[in-house]
Write a structure and sequence with these properties.
Elements lengths: L1 E4 L3 H11 L5 H19 L5 E7 L4 E7 L5 E6 L6 H5 L6 E2 L1 E6 L6 E7 L8 E5 L2 E2 L3 H11 L5 E9 L1 H11 L4 E9 L2 E2 L5 E2 L5 H6 L3
Parallel strand pairs: 1-11, 4-5, 4-6, 4-8, 8-10, 9-10, 10-11
Antiparallel strand pairs: 2-3, 6-7, 12-13
Length: about 210
């Protein structure tokens, strides 16, 4: 597994505002969208392309275009949905799937409650979107889910990660396939309730309110 921490002043600035407990939901949603677009630039660095010939106003030249089969962007519901537009802004030709997972607050294990994914992901570059990598259970379950459908090239995009979650993910993934983790920052630790410290709170609640 490869870890990439986006070390950029704009990333750090937007993340600082997101951490502020007084940042209102509309501003929070806007900043998540902007921050994910910056992370998407790093996450798509190795996206597969193929040669493509075009005519310019003066001659013919060969450039590149996103290769088939098209990449698949998969937000993990519900919080990952707030990251979708920021990702597809940079990858407008990608297809979008959905994976509904939530953490059991007692066992801390991920429970799948919905999915809308192709049965066969062979040859697809899959981008998983989840704001917080805390215990690692949800992301490991999501990666296993797409592995079972044939995906072998997976990039996870998160706003924050805890060292404990990264360690769990590394152990679970091993060298089975090519998995990359792109984050805005790696925080200090998890607290006794498995929340990231200093973190930014519950990303889903801050995006959409408590439902």
């Amino acid at each position: 597994m490869r870890l990439h921490v986006a070390d950029h002043p704009l990333v750090a600035h937007k993340l600082t505002v997101l951490r502020n407990k007084d940042t209102a939901s509309p501003t929070f949603r806007l900043l998540v969208d902007e921050l994910v677009t910056l992370l998407a630039y790093e996450a798509t660095r190795d996206v597969r392309v193929e040669p493509h010939e075009v005519e310019t106003p003066v001659t013919t030249t060969v450039g590149v275009r996103i290769a088939e089969p098209r990449p698949l962007v998969v937000p993990i519901l519900r919080a990952g949905l707030g990251m979708l537009e920021g990702m597809t802004r940079l990858l407008p030709t990608a297809e979008v799937g959905f994976l509904g997972m939530q953490r059991d607050e007692e066992t801390l294990e991920a429970v799948t409650y919905a999915n809308r994914l192709p049965d066969d992901l062979t040859g697809r570059h899959v981008f998983l979107l989840d704001p917080m990598l805390a215990t690692g259970g949800t992301l490991v379950a999501a990666i296993d889910y797409v592995f079972e459908r044939g995906a072998r090239d997976v990039t996870a995009v998160c706003l924050l990660a805890a060292p404990e979650g990264i360690e769990v993910l590394e152990k679970a993934v091993g060298d089975r396939v090519d998995v990359q983790l792109v984050v805005a920052a790696v925080d200090e630790r998890l607290d006794e309730k498995a929340y990231i410290v200093p973190g930014l709170g519950d990303a889903g609640d801050r995006l959409y309110g408590v439902v």
